[in-house]
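Following up on my earlier thread - several people asked me to post the actual chain instead of describing it. Fair enough. Here it is, all 268 residues.
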Amino acid sequence: MDLIVIVGYLCSILIGIVLGLVGGGGSILSMPVLIYLFSVNEEVSTSYSLFIVGMSSLIGVLQRLKFNLLAVREGLIFAIPSTITAFFMRSLIMPNIPEALHFFDTTVEKDTVIVILLGVLMMFTSLKMLIGKDTNENNKKTPLSLVIALGIAVGVLAGFVGAGGGFLIVPALIFMGLPIKKAISTSMLVVTIQSCVAFLGDFNNPKIMGEGGLDWSLLLVLTGLTVGGVIIGGIFSKKIDGSVLKKGFGVLILLVGGFLVMDKLHLF
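Reply from S.P.:
Thanks for posting it. Predicted structure:
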């Protein structure tokens, strides 16, 4: 077995641990692993990451049921508009976006745009988490219209970049008034629903399903390793302070997002 494959497997376990600890980041971390370590095409990797993170988050949700950390009502209200939007993004819009996009006098490949946008979103979100005020509880109830708007926005972004959206959902749920640990657990519920439904939308994308379809052997192995990591992360999350989880998550996605942008802009 090649060393790079072993590193990829170890990274999958680490991704699961991160997902289990902070309720997000699985997709945005798994995509670089798929692209750089397993040589999966950028757009196809978005589909792989949806499946891996969707299945892994489901295990995380089941693991947390007995700890009363799930805000099911808030999660479902957020998940419905987010999931519907992500599904239509994957099934109708993504297949019809041309492979080469034109910006003024410059032509950029769609795959490059996906990765750069993902990296920029990661850095923006991480900075908001690192320098923003801690708001574990809000006394005001978030208006339903704002919840729906946040869900649609996350669905658009998740559908385009192939991320389950946990790194965006956790801050949104905190903004809605959930404590950090409940936001993490509820995020996994939303990610499970959104990722699985968005993945089904990929069956309408010939670029992803063509030429032999998905490599299910690789997909299932990576999913199994990530699930193992989620279980480990869930155990440790009970023993770590919520503010530490939030700051650590912010630093991690800032570093990975910066790497993605610099790599695609050939700044190394």
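The radius of gyration is 17 Å. That should answer part of your original question.
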